[in-house]
Amino acid sequence: MAGTPLMLSVGLIEKDTNGDALWVWCYPTITAELRELLLRKCSLTGENDVFPTFVFGQFKRTWYYITTTQVQDPTALSKVTHFSIVLTAKDFNPEKYAAFGRVLCRTYMKYGNPAKITEGYISVLTNGICQSEENGSFFTKDYDAKKAYLAGSIKDIVNQFGMETIILYTGLMLKKRIVVYHPRIEALQEFTRTLPTLTWHRQDWSILHPYMHLNQNELEALKNCTGYVAGFTDLKVTDRPGIYDVFVNLVESEIIIAPHAKEIMTMGKLHKDIGQLIVQSAGDPEKSDGQVIKDISHKTKEILTTLASLAPDEEGKSKITLEILKERRFPPATESFLYHLAAAEQMLQI
User: Fold this and answer.
1) Residue 72 DSSP class
2) How confident is the model at residue 287 (pLDDT cuts 50, 70, 90)?
3) What is the rounded distance in angstroms from the CA atom of residue 65 to the CA atom of residue 101?
């Protein structure tokens, strides 16, 4: 397949002149559970007239990308005030699906016919390309996965949190549950999508749930994940201490470690060294975000190499035990961090 066998479906939600938002159409199919979730995410069901033009998120390993637009004349659409094009896919790539979503929105605005959306969708699915003179063109090859991973700014995060960035780094390294709050979806998505770069050696964006509601179904799905970064626009999330180990309030620029996680997140000299390296690297005006990520990743690899060297075995797989760490007489905070890191990296001998 030349195109994107990563796409799963395309759907259409409309808000009519009566103010009702409804699923109108989808291709090839979307489950009822996912349809209900996407209706909630597109924001058209609310009372407000201001809608985020683009949101993205993840539910049970399916990524969704929603492009919302207000209907403007001239248009083939009657009795519709707004509509959302919803794309679901297996891959994380907001820029790619935002660009494709915009092309499909223009197409639908012009023709008012879902069949035209299907044409564009199938064209991208099979050939990785959707071209039209008046509605713009889209090429899958322009959007690399690594580019999507590097789209946020790690320097901005370090600028905001300084030495406290080490709490985020530690939480991610130990696969802890990080919840982030900001009332504005765009700010939330920008911040949360950047956090996995702190553990670049994993390149795992499946931990990201950038736009969550306090909905039972969503929270149940989240509980099944080991460690995660989850974004909420509702401050009531603070009433749910059971879902986070680290809470980030982006508005107040504060990071809170939950009482039950304080012991595992105790900071020592090693953390201070890593924290200083992060702050120093991010504070260098000559360095790009990519170079800062490289510096942090280099330090992480050093730690992992040290850890692996403590208990090498014949097959090249390290098996760490608490006894091995105790023999080395590390400071308590370092010993605890290395022990839990070994567990997170599946290097622990139980």
Assistant:
1) -
2) very high
3) 8
